[in-house]
Amino acid sequence: MRARRARSQQGSAVVDFVLVLVVLVPLFLGILQVGLVLYVRNTLAAAASEGARYAATQDRDLADGGARTREQIDRAVSGRFAQDVEVRPVVVDGAPGVEVVVHARVPALGIGGPAVELEVSGHAVEEDPQ
What we know:
- It is a single chain.
- By secondary structure, this protein is α+β, with helices and mostly antiparallel strands.
- The chain has one domain (2-125).
- The protein contains 3 helices and 3 strands.
- The protein has a 3-stranded antiparallel β-sheet with strand order 1-2-3.
- The longest helix is centred in the N-terminal third of the chain and has 45 residues, at 12-56.
- The chain is rod-shaped, with a radius of gyration of 25 Å.
């Protein structure tokens, strides 16, 4: 009786493994996608802030800030995320400043498919010429 029961269990480990994989693989890929999007967003935000600070220095202009932002993004992730960089003068807490806005699309798992739209910005107060 015992041998008969053991024989009826053969192959059930494969079925259990497949059933667990059906749940775990999409969960793992979802976590990987969220991590990728957060990494790119944080990198773009840091590059936008660096570009704004660079453009706000006394001997630089807005174009220099945009170029610095694109350079930082190209080095950290990819130049394709640096295609839509906007630099403009703004007022930051009543003082003249610079704002850098980066628009990007992050594809699913970095390989294409539906994309997540990101818009990040960085601000800096211009240096006082005194």
